[in-house]
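Notes, p. 3: input format for complexes.
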Amino acid sequence: MKKIGLLGCGAIGTQIALAIDSGKIPAKLTHVYDGSKEASAKLVEKLNSKPIIVENSHLLSSNPVDIIVEAASQDAVKDVSLSVLQNKKDLMIMSVGALLDESIYDILSDACKDFKKTIYLPSGAIAGLDGIKAVHDELDSLSITTTKHPRSLKGAKFFENSDIDLDSLDSKTEIFQGTAKQAVSLFPANINVAALLSLTGIGSENTKVVIVADPKTDKNTHHIEAKGSFGKMTFTIENFPDPNNPKTSRLAILSAIETLRKYCSDEIQIGT
Ligand SMILES: NC(=O)c1ccc[n+]([C@@H]2O[C@H](COP(=O)([O-])OP(=O)(O)OC[C@H]3O[C@@H](n4cnc5c(N)ncnc54)[C@H](O)[C@@H]3O)[C@@H](O)[C@H]2O)c1
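Output follows (272 residues plus nicotinamide-adenine-dinucleotide):
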């Protein structure tokens, strides 16, 4: 049975840990770490099979685990990813925005080859990456429009230099239009899907992102359009936010659980 170390015990980390504990993911969660001791203790309390809480994030991969699951933050990705691979462990990353920093992407990509380990990026809160992956050599344009309730956008760096008052919006309002690269640095906790899309498709400078705040919506909606010599694809995904973290969609959690289940199972693999 595969052994898993978990970095980040928030909305996603907790649901992954519960899926392992219930047997849905056939694995053993052996070690966990969260910058907040309260968060890791609260998670461990919920589990029947108790993992060890380690004292810092680097200690996760120095233990005999097969894979480290990151569900913490872009900073956590920047801090630990290389040492995870150097310790010859696989890595699953949820805070995908960190990889739009090209130097980090290149270093990790080389490290995967050097240490013969794999980084897994689940499809997260979107669908259709299988199709976009298949046609990426024939793509001319790729765009994503993300619509969320204003409370799901709160705290983003973008608002430090903006006059928009999210609390006073009474109708659907376009907040941002730019490239995936810009969106990921201005909305780091919200727009991992744009990062995933651009890494799969035509790069972060060429992927167009629009962010809309809608005070009347109860969903996180992503509309994706891809065009090229292959034809055209459009996907609209209407996600319910996770009750514990409205910035995170339920689908992102389910997608992480499915990626990990697949990693831990010997079975027929369906899909591109
Ligand atoms: N790929 C996707 O589609 C997708 C979707 C949703 C969220 N995410 C990303 O996944 C990550 C986790 O999301 P969540 O909803 O569980 O967030 P959350 O805020 O509920 O939980 C994050 C946890 O990680 C801990 N943490 C943060 N930085 C840390 C660090 N450097 N070291 C150790 N612990 C740290 C926090 O204390 C917190 O307990 C976020 O970065 C989020 O942006 C990705």
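The CA atoms of residues 100 and 181 lie 7 Å apart.
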